[in-house]
Amino acid sequence: MLWSFNSSRLATVWAGFSFKWYGELLRDDSILDAAWVSLRIAFWTATASVVLGTLAALAMTRLRRFPGRTLFGGLITAPLVMPDVIIGLSMLLMFVSLGEVLQIQPKGMASIWIAHTTFSLAFVTVVVSSRMAELDRSLEEAAMDLGANRVKVFFLITLPIIAPALVSGWLLAFTLSLDDVVIASFVSGPSSTTLPMKVFSSVRLGLSPKINALATLMIVAVSVCAFLGWWLMSRSERRRRRELQVARQA
């Protein structure tokens, strides 16, 4: 972070404090375009992973005896133990086959999104299912005894309790997608270069101080988002505890 404010191109020579490289970074359209692509893919990847991961966690923790449960759980969590190269290659072969059948361009932002969602889904499922396994089922049963149906119980009882796990899973999936370079290298198209791919190609051609500025901005952004997530979850947890205490006293 310190060297991002160095006016010299050489990391070994301190030539004075300057915002020069931040200006150069903001004038580099290729890096800005790649950053915008990565942010969009990461946002939709995290959102889709939370939705699908929550549904998968519900199936694994609530439907304990449905046929193929073991196979379903194994398929969902398989990306956790698979190398990124294997995932990227398998997704590439799938998209190429679909492109030949449907006569479409198989690689682009959509293909990166699908590949990242497939990879991140496993992490979100583990996080959410762990929280749901610790959930006090008596709260749901009490709500159902009072006349609430399963859908209402989920949105009014279950969802607020597992909200911290959903936020954690969303942030984890967002980070995994934003950081990925291996899988995206297999499934990206010519107009869908992500920020990690752009940085990797730039480093191979020679390290520029603009990369230091970019890394500093990303560290600051992630730190702020992590702090906000922690603050929101802490506030939600304190409010939930107060509500439970009031309910018990009543």
Outline the structure in words:
The chain is an all-alpha fold and 250 residues long. The chain has a single domain, classed as Orthogonal Bundle (MetI-like fold). 76% of the residues lie in helices and 0% in strands. It contains ten helices and no strands. The radius of gyration is 22 Å and the shape is flat. The termini are far apart. The model has no long low-confidence stretch (mean pLDDT 84).
Summarize the structure.
The chain has helices spanning 20-26, 29-62, 69-77, 84-102, 109-133, 137-145, 150-179, 182-187, 195-205, 209-249. The mean pLDDT is 84. The protein contains ten helices and no strands.
Descriptive keywords:
250 residues, flat, mainly alpha, MetI-like fold
pLDDT < 50 stretches: none
Which percent range describes the beta-strand content? under 5%
State the CATH topology.
Answer: MetI-like fold
**CATH superfamily assignment?**
MetI-like
Q: How does the SSE layout of this entry go?
A:
Elements (H helix, E strand, L loop, with lengths): L19 H7 L2 H34 L6 H9 L6 H19 L6 H25 L3 H9 L4 H30 L2 H6 L7 H11 L3 H41 L1
Helix pairs in contact: 1-10, 2-5, 2-7, 2-9, 5-7, 6-7, 7-10
